[in-house]
Specification:
With 445 residues, this protein is an alpha/beta fold. Helix content is 45%, strand content 8%.
């Protein structure tokens, strides 16, 4: 209720917002009478402000820090974002995504891309297209963006790199003396974390901020009260300048949490009502994507900014070769062209799939020790063998048993999860080779 009386009162009254207010009041144990009183209050405040009235500041506002006073905290926050969003998986040679990041092309859609007759998406793993416009240009003026691509196409890296660019630009502007209220600030969160915070019954803005701060704990960052107040004001303000980036929408599996995630995204969608409001970017695999933006008015039209959908394209061949060169340069090894060429040979069945970033990375990893196979199923067998043998770095094997060492066990689990997500989007060709790899593993790991 305190959230409704402080933040909701700033909003222009719309039917959808009143609907959400009713839901929140009911969820807090309020009665129909409480709802009616709040609706009357909401309209009275709006009319008062519309006729030139000024609302008194709520208790405690005098103690809030000014924007200038939180500049140091903002600088610390942006540094943590740049650090955490740049980290890579342990099996990759470079610890920072910039070392091997390739700019991406996308194809834009006004509506969710149509499905094929067989029920599959009209785009995806078997339709390896490069895209027709750069991501940076495509998303420049878009208020609500949805990035759709299969596992392994680099959605997370794209979203992390985008958030990093925003953080770096904001940090550079801050160092140049720009007012902190004019900074464009990123909030990056995993959809599952956003759902968990929302389902916990927190105030909407607190749920979004709590989920966005969780990854930053890896760098030791903690959100203090002054910065929380500032970020909340920016998120809810009419000239927000906040970009909320929600990754892995398709990885919310619990039904209750999926509903919580939908409510959270719809709430964020409701903030995107004017040019200076927050921007929202959502990333998901097409399989498992459910549209959370179906909030319509009485005429059946979307009440807020319509989402723009983007199909993430694959890498060009020059980018694949650049990725391989950078990989082995970072390893301090010469490029093993003879081991890699079979994968990209003109008649290779793997050739078109090498343009998928994860497949290209798998080829480089396998080529550190053996010649890359020419089919996806054989490549998966090679990769699975390396994961199961825990060969994280060339010439070295981690000490200790993965069954006893939580760090090694977690490292193996994360890597296999990434491989599993990719395989799930790749059809059935890999299954028999996975079974063979597990049978042949002498340790039964």
């Amino acid at each position: 209720m305190s959230w409704l009386l402080t933040n909701e009162a700033r909003w222009k009254p719309t039917p959808a917002r009143l609907t959400w207010a009713r839901k929140i009041i009911s969820a807090c144990g309020g009665t129909d009478e409480d709802v009616a009183q709040w609706v009357d209050y909401h309209h009275a405040v709006s009319d008062f402000v519309a006729h030139g009235g000024t609302l008194p500041k709520p208790p405690g506002d005098a103690e809030k820090a000014t924007a200038e006073e939180v500049a140091a905290e903002i600088r610390h926050y942006l540094g943590a974002v740049i650090d955490v969003l740049g980290r890579t998986m342990a099996w990759l040679p470079d610890p920072d995504i910039d070392a091997n990041f390739e700019q991406r092309m996308v194809t834009a859609w006004d509506e969710i891309p149509e499905r094929r007759v067989d029920g599959g998406p009209s785009f995806g793993f078997r339709d390896t297209r490069q895209g027709d416009v750069s991501w940076n240009r495509a998303v420049e003026e878009v208020a609500v963006a949805v990035v759709l691509a299969d596992a392994g196409y680099g959605k997370t890296w794209l979203l992390r790199h985008h958030g990093r660019q925003l953080a770096r630009s904001a940090l550079a502007a801050l160092e140049s003396g720009a007012p902190v209220d004019e900074l464009v600030l990123p909030l990056f969160t995993h959809a599952a974390e956003l759902a968990a915070h929302w389902a916990a019954g927190k105030a909407p803005s607190n749920a979004v901020l709590g989920a966005a701060m969780l990854p930053l704990r890896e760098s030791g960052f903690t959100l203090d009260a002054r910065l929380r107040d500032y970020l909340e004001d920016r998120l809810l303000g009419e000239q927000s300048g906040v970009h909320v980036l929600v990754d892995a929408w398709d990885e919310v599996f619990d039904d209750d949490h999926r509903e919580a995630a939908r409510q959270a995204v719809r709430w964020l969608h409701g903030l995107v009502v004017h040019p200076g409001g927050p921007r929202l970017v959502l990333a998901s695999r097409p399989t498992g994507y459910s549209d959370p933006f179906g909030v319509a008015d009485a005429d059946g039209d979307l009440e807020y900014s319509a989402p723009r959908y983007f199909e993430l394209g694959v890498l060009a061949e020059t980018q694949v070769r650049h990725l391989w060169r950078a990989w082995f340069r970072y390893r301090g090894q010469p490029l093993p062209e003879q081991r890699l060429l079979p994968a990209i040979a003109p008649r290779s069945p793997l050739r078109r799939f090498v343009h998928v970033p994860l497949i290209a990375a798998f080829c480089a990893w396998v080529a550190e020790e053996e010649t890359v196979a020419q089919t996806r199923s054989e490549l998966y067998r090679q990769v699975l063998g390396r994961f199961l043998s825990r060969q994280w770095k060339p010439g070295s094997t981690p000490s200790g048993s993965p069954h006893q060492d939580p760090a090694h066990r977690g490292q193996l689990h994360r890597a296999l999860m990434e491989l599993a997500w990719h395989m799930a989007a790749g059809g059935s060709t890999w299954r028999r080779h996975c079974a063979r790899g597990l049978r042949d593993d002498p340790g039964g790991r």
